[in-house]
Amino acid sequence: QFLMANKLDTAMWISRLFTVYCSALFVLPLLGLHEAASFYQRALLANAFTSALRLHQRLPHFQLSRAFLAQALLEDSCHYLLYSLIFVNSYPVTMSIFPVLLFSLLHAATYTKKVLDARSSNSLPFLRNLLEKLNANQQNILKFIACNEIFLMPATVFMLFSGQGSLLQPFIYYRFLTLRYSSRRNPYCRTLFTELRIVVEHLIMKPSCPVFVRRLCLSSISFISRLAPTVA
After folding, report:
1. 37-49, pLDDT tens digit by residue?
2. What would the DSSP string read from start to end of 12-34?
3. Percent of the chain with pLDDT over 70
4. 9 is in which domain, residue-wise?
């Protein structure tokens, strides 16, 4: 009854579980490397489906207008719909599947707990314990996802020069990264950029750091800072 009463949430729960399943079989190619590539695409397509459902839930009344598009781009679900479309037809990159896998796992775990609560307050204690441990590590998982989002930017450039990526991919991914940096619901991308900057500046200011390395890092920090969008 609980599942039928929340059909849209249930559909997203099932698609997230499927995303976790496909992502796991890509990361751990138990069925062979050829099958792993197909599971990579399935995971991203399932994530795109979930993101589209979530975006519809957040903005139910679609309008073909500039204002609606601007509103949609503020939603995290729109960001990951774009993310899935960027990588779904590209060369499989293990690094790109972790955000999809972990976000799906976190959201699926939250809804699984609701399903268990609807069934019985004491049902499946072992599973409940696993879900509690996952929830306790949520902040670390979100930071890991943000770290993946950041380091995928140079990875897309490397893929371009190695012949495994398209010319447009780095530019489109840069747009995705600016959206994540400006996210209202998830500040971890901004936080990680700040923490990485602090760590790099601390290291290069040590007397043992060569001058040319210091200058290169400071120039890179200045360049990246200029590319960062303004956050209200």
Report:
1. 899 999 999 999 9
2. HHHHHHHHHHHHHHHHS-TT-HH
3. 100
4. 1-185
